[in-house]
Amino acid sequence: MQRKAIALFSGGLDSTLAIRLMQVQGIDVRAIHFTSPFFGVSPDSDSGKYDARRGAELLNVTLTICNLDEEYLEMLRNPRHGYGKAVNPCIDCHAYFLRKARELMVETGADFVITGEVLGQRPMSQRRDALRVVEVDCGLEGLLLRPLSARFLPPTKPELEGWIDREKLPAIKGRSRKEQIRLAAELGVQEYPNPAGGCLLTEVSYASKVRDIFSHAEKLDARDFRLLRVGRHFRLAPSVRLIVGRDEEENNLLFQYAMEGEIIIRWEDGGSPYGLLIGQADEAALDTAGRILLRYTKAARNEPARLKVIAGGEREFSCNNSFLPEDVEPYRI
User: Which of 37, 154, 189, 250 could be bridged to 226 by S-S, CB 3.0 to 4.6 A?
Assistant: First the structure.
């Protein structure tokens, strides 16, 4: 009987090799890819670049794209095992992904789950103790195989039962990719992406924006986190946030993301970024938003300037371009 496995698949080299190692041993593999505002491919668009869809096509495996929802965002806000250097709850994330993979395993009648994890490659989630914690948390004890580092780890059921020949699996650990590149050539894997920054949650410069949403939003919405990639962000009040576009592309994105009832403003008398106000902005917040926005225009200093509301009820208002850099900084997220 042909055995089946579910693979966590980023589209990168490690997860690609994990799948190929199973395929050469006769395992039928199905891949699952997770996407969120912080990582992964868009589930409903194709950039044309190499991504998980292209990788699955090359491997000839069925790909399930799982768009993470509010439950996942709440886990990020209160991770059981804490954060890394930024707001990256890597241990909790891996456990969450593997619980979803386990659900797909049960649903499809697969026998076990594989990942492309490499012992010692990442300091938080790929330590020996962390790998064990994740295995227990996700309910896959004995059924979670990490093929690239298998011979450094305790044998799993697929190995003990003879579904997989453990001796044919590699023994890779650490951050170097030399062994993976050699193995790729051996397995006929010719197309794969270069290593690059993956998850935005690991970026320290991004963390303050995420924490700001965690602190002020009662209900978490994926849109708010997608907007963190766009523009300059300011907190005007506990319930009011301002995003100022940096170029025409970002202006267009702010207009696209704006929801009914939200306000977009711009300077009326010259080239201007858009300012998107999220939340219930009163006149004081609107005036502050206008002053911040004018810092990024060529409006005359310390003179009244006309601003226009172009979404959220068209009207004009006036405020002085009086803010200095030090006046803006207390609002910056």
Answer: 37
